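Build the 3D complex.
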Amino acid sequence: MNVFVRKFISSWAVAGLLVISSSLFAAAAEPSLNVEVRLVLGSEDGKAIPADFKKMDAALAKTLSRSFRWTEYYEGTPQKVQAPAQKSQKVKLDEECSIELKNLGASKIEVKYFVGAKQIGKTVNTLPPQNWLTVGSVDKNNSAKFVMMRLVPEKAAKKETKESRN
Amino acid sequence: MARRLDLKTAEDQALVRVAQRGNMPAFEELISRHRDKLYARAFSMLRNEEEALDVSQEAWVKGWQRLKQFQGEAGFATWMTRIVINLCLDHLRKKKRQQTESLEELDEEWGGAERRMPFLVVNPTEGLERIELRKRIDRALVQLSEAHRQVLVLYEFEEMDYKQIAKVTHCSIGTVMSRLFYARRRLAALLMSLKKERDSE
Amino acid sequence: MNIELELKIQAWLDNELSANEAAEVATLVATNTEAQALAAELKSLKAFVHANEPALTVPESREFYWSKIERAIAQSEKVAPQSESAGLSPIFAWARSWLAPVAGLAAMVAVLIVIPPRSSEPEYSETDTPSEGGGVIHFKDPASGMTVIWFYDQAGNPIQNPDSIDNVEKPE
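Done.
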């Protein structure tokens, strides 16, 4: 083989190895995401609210009423989920709804949404800090259950971890 | 002996074949036939005379460069309008990166008051001449948000289906559907208010 | 009438529904006055907008408009062959075969190390519709930054939990 051709190929081989190692480095450096998950109940009459649901704070309820028609909003106990890179986490919200979260890296998260045992749909979204992602489908008897999730800012998540250690 | 093509009377297809062999006058004739349509489409998307002129001219340059790829499955004008649409969308994406939309515009993209507006029972275009109707639609289009206008122009004027619009605008079909819906509802409301203005004059 | 139904009526008028779905919507429009009113509004709007794209003419003379295009074409044709035929000296070609990939990689590694990969990412959203022929409504409220993904079944109804329907209906 011609010397120049050999050198050319070898230089690209070195380059290829560097690409693989740098992408492995990048994947390894991908941190976990801390996600806050809330199960929300929207209601038109405030009737038949499960005992473990409490009324949602006014600001968030106002945000929801921009998008939904329900007049009152209640929420279950918020859950904090740590989603390590590229690993799936199942989160059970109540007897009916559950989700499976997968951190795809770069603030991108895959959400599989289940009603009972059945997977209803899958969505992949970036989660900009403080922005809510809402996934739902259950709507009956003038009320609806849906799931809201957002990233917990890194500082807040660290603070909470410290407090729980103390 | 080869017959000389009369550029003025030749069909588009014949002009394209000649232009594909590098004949500039044939291409210029095609431009003169379709330049208004291309410019109008660019203007519908961009709502700016200077930008529409630049983008339409850029489309013709691209058209010349890619002319050999034109197989004639669609008409030449349709092929060219797709080029201009793609350039308009690129242009709008670049512009969007440079400026953030105002809160009002974003609200409008979401649907705003149109979501709760009662349906119209009066035809806001009743009794209008075509020229007046077009003017009225033009005035209403100006008032739509960029996202609404894009989807409406692509559906109504460019005759793309939901799937094609979703592809070129990089949106989900659901987003296309809701944008188109709110665009239409807003347009109906705008046309109605223009009718009221005219009736009260 | 909810937004899902409103969008379905629009999709019906736009011929975007399957035959089954179209038949369902047609029945709804025939029997529900609100659906009828929306269908009538959208139908008349579609009809007059479709045929009335504002007619405009290029605000420049034919010659001037063409001259700018002609210049741009000539310019692009001049640039293309020059860049293709630019000859490289053997030393530069040798250096380029090594330096180009290494420099490119150095830049990539620098970007990976120096720039934090989060928050600057462009927003991305992709949603699979339910496997059994249902659909999904996807929208964003830009003012609050909230994204909503709402799944519905083939008939346009919200999806119910098949295991719990009996429990809901029966009195305790």
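The CA atoms of residues 45 and 146 of chain B lie 8 Å apart.
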